[in-house]
Amino acid sequence: MKKLLTFVMILLLCGAIGALAQDDLPTRAELTDGVNYIPVAGAVCARGTPYQFAVRTGDPDKLMIYFQGGGACWSDRTCRVEDSRFDDSTDTGELSGAAVGAFDRDNPDNPIADYSVVVVMYCTADVHVGAADVRYGAADTRYTINHHGAANAIAVLDWTFANYPNPDHLIITGSSAGAYGAIYHAPRILSQYPGVPALVFGDAGIGVTPEAWQGVDNWNGGANQPDAMPPTVEGAVNDFTYSDDLYATASASFPDVIFAEYTSAADSNQVGNYFLQFGVPGQWAPNARAHLETRSALANFRYYLAWGDTHTILPTDLFYTMQVNGVRFVDWFAALVAGEPVETVACQACESES
Amino acid sequence: MRSIVILMIFLALSAAAPIAAQDLAPGWNPITPGGSALCARGTPYTFYARPGDPAKLLIYFQGGGACWNDETCAPGAGWFDEIVVGGEADNYSQGVFDPNNGENPLAGYSAVMVTYCTGDYHTGDRRVEYATGAVEHRGAVNAAAAIAWTARQFPRPSQVVIAGCSAGAIGSIYHAPAILRRYANARVTQFGDAGVGVIPPAWGGFDVWGARRNTTPDQVVTRLYRAAAGNAPRARFGQYTTAQDSVQTTYYTIMGAVNAWTLEMNARIDTLVGRANFRAYVAPGGEHCIAESGRFYGESANGVRFRDWFAALVGGDLPGNVRCEGC
Q: Average of pLDDT values for B138-147?
């Protein structure tokens, strides 16, 4: 792993991943009503194809920044085309096709139906934190993955800051891999909107990793992590506690903001990735609970632990149907958005609805 | 002179058996045999032991992928688990490791966790210089050290369960004869969990690893079962798999798959189910190991709960074969 890091460092020194230009991007006034896809010149996906983000117009005072999910990769086994453990393009997303869950503008129960939505689309296999060109495979099968998630996200955020300068409601969220993007970039966004009532909500990305796993390092996540993060050891982040550290850092820096997370108790997708990191699958659920309990020590942190093994809730109909201990998720989420006091909700017998 | 020779012999024996039986603290105790017991990148090998009823012993072979060429063995390539981390055995608390479930058929067992960090199905004894770096394929050495220590620490169990998940399923049948020899008077059950051994005939991994037993890849696991079950008619043998196991199919593919995995898997099971002391449980779906999972208690196929089938295999009247249909 140290060799890999050294290699990553060399690439960084070569200036492989710089800031992306904003000049050619349309302004908000130039967008059409509805869904817009905006290519970012020079920004690339994991396998070198062009990158774009998406904006759904809405009430300009209400802003949701949504980090898209789509798997991740950190090794040949998980990065190779044949096993496609991640989405390597920005061709489609939550805003294409029929809008469901939190993206459904026509459901009267949707508390955020009228929000403007910026989707930080995702195709870099690095949970939006990467800053490295990493070579995987061996000999004649060697290939490069452009883990450019941080630069892509920052380009989208810079556009957002310029075009939505004064929202009075703010939601920073993301599903699956996007949940990590949301908490990783939250301090950057919250600093831009001081005093704006804000919710940071991670959907189905708890950050349970085995102790030996070093993916965030592999992606060079330390390069763009929040300024207030604790100093790293020899330039390396602590992967095992990285999500805990991100929540602790952000919640301490922004004590008036509510931070919240959702997961199902046995999320099959998160369990699957844990296995690929050589974790014992059966141990994901108890470890996820332990991480959530650790974060619950933060005064402004809440979570909703749902029964079952489904993955994500915002882009699914579970947004309206999930109910735990008599509390509908959509009502719980609406209260968070409204800034009302909300308590943690956790299933007891988590195998089925109770 | 004679005393020097005796001393030398004594020292040689000591070197061959460096770890003695010891008092174990409650919970998992790390045991580092030293010598040539190594993980893939040359770090020391550590296995774990948990004290319990001395009459009941579980020897569990951990899984963790495999590697056999420049590509799969490259550092960080993700095809196998390269190290044992401190407290690794603490990661097990589900299925047969669940201390709080009253239905756990292995509750109270003494247990040895034969950890796995060598990418060789616990069978290797060779250092291999790949273009992408050297790998110590010392799985057989590591397992032998763990088994020797176990035999001293737990000399007279009446009930022994040998089990393993994935790569560990293959390790558990590969090393079953050595364990059976040491526990000839015990009631022994071997259980291979999600490692049926569907391997393309041309695949050369066992030779790369320097595995010593007859490991021609075609039908290797089936032959290991035949030999072990034939030589130990009083012992019981079982295998579990799902019909579409997502992990077994992935490895079969990169080994150079020949036919559909499910077809091959069923053919392997077909050749074993006729034996008096072998039983199979083939479940629908694509999940991987079950014994270390919470699914151990919840999963059923053909109306037979897996937990009950396993409990019968280990302790009661032999269960029937359970094979999902059209799955």
A: 98
Q: Is the pLDDT of residue B122 over 50?
A: yes
d(CA B153, CA B150): 5
For residue A2, what pLDDT band results from cuts at 50, 70 and 90? Answer: very low
Chain B residues whose CB is inside 8 A of the A267 CB are none
Total structural domains in chain A? 1
pLDDT given for residue A232 in this prediction: 66
Q: Is the pLDDT of residue B57 over 90?
A: yes
- Contacting residues of B for A2, CB less than 8 Å apart: none
Q: What is the C-alpha separation between B2 and B6, in angstroms, rounded?
A: 6
Dihedral angle over CA of A56, A57, A58, A59, nearest 10: 130
What is the rounded distance in angstroms from the CA atom of residue B48 to the CA atom of residue B114? Answer: 7
Please state, for a pLDDT cut of 90, what percent of chain A lies above it: 82
The pLDDT tens digits for B259-279 are: 899 999 999 999 999 999 999
CB-nearest to B83 from A83, A212, A218 is A212
Task: Examine residue A119 and state whether it is found in any structural domain, yes or no.
Answer: yes
Q: Which among A78, A266, A351 is the nearest to B78, CB-wise?
A: A78
- Continuous segment of H or E residues that includes residue A98: none
CA dihedral A55, A178, A183, A289 (to 10 degrees): 140
**pLDDT of amino acid B19:** 56
**pLDDT value of residue A1:** 39
Task: Describe the crossing of helices A149-163 and A177-192 by its angle, rounded to 10 degrees.
Answer: 40
User: What CATH architecture is B18-240?
Assistant: 3-Layer(aba) Sandwich (3.40)
Looking at A49-176, list the stretches that DSSP marks H as alpha helix, in order from N- to C-terminal side: 76-79, 149-163
Question: Distance of CA A353 to CAs A287, A305, A308, B293, Å?
Answer: 22, 12, 8, 21
Q: How confident is residue B21, by pLDDT bands cut at 50, 70 and 90?
A: low
CA gap A250, A229 in Å, rounded: 9
Question: In sequence order, what E strands does chain A have?
Answer: 35-44, 50-56, 59-67, 115-120, 132-136, 143-147, 169-175, 198-203, 258-264, 301-306, 323-324, 327-328, 345-346
Nearest chain B residue to A83, by CA: B250
User: B-chain residues within 8 Å CB-CB of A282?
Assistant: 92-95, 292-294
Chain B: give the shortest CA distance to residue A82, in Å: 10
C-alpha to C-alpha distance for A193 and A252, rounded to whole angstroms: 16
Share of chain B above pLDDT 70, in %: 94
State the DSSP string of B29-83.
Answer: EEE---TT-B-TTSPBP-EEEE--EEEEEEEEE---B---SHHHHSTT-SSB---
Q: What is the CATH number of the domain that holds A298?
A: 3.40.50.1820
Band of the pLDDT at B5, cuts 50, 70, 90? Answer: very low
The model carries a pTM of 0.89
- ipTM, two decimals, is 0.85
Residue A352 lies in a domain: no
Cβ–Cβ below 8 Å for A139 and B93: no
- Inter-chain contact B293–A281, Cβ cutoff 8 Å? yes
What is the extent of the structural domain holding A273?
Answer: 2-346
What is the number of other CB atoms lying within 10 angstroms of the CB of residue A227?
10
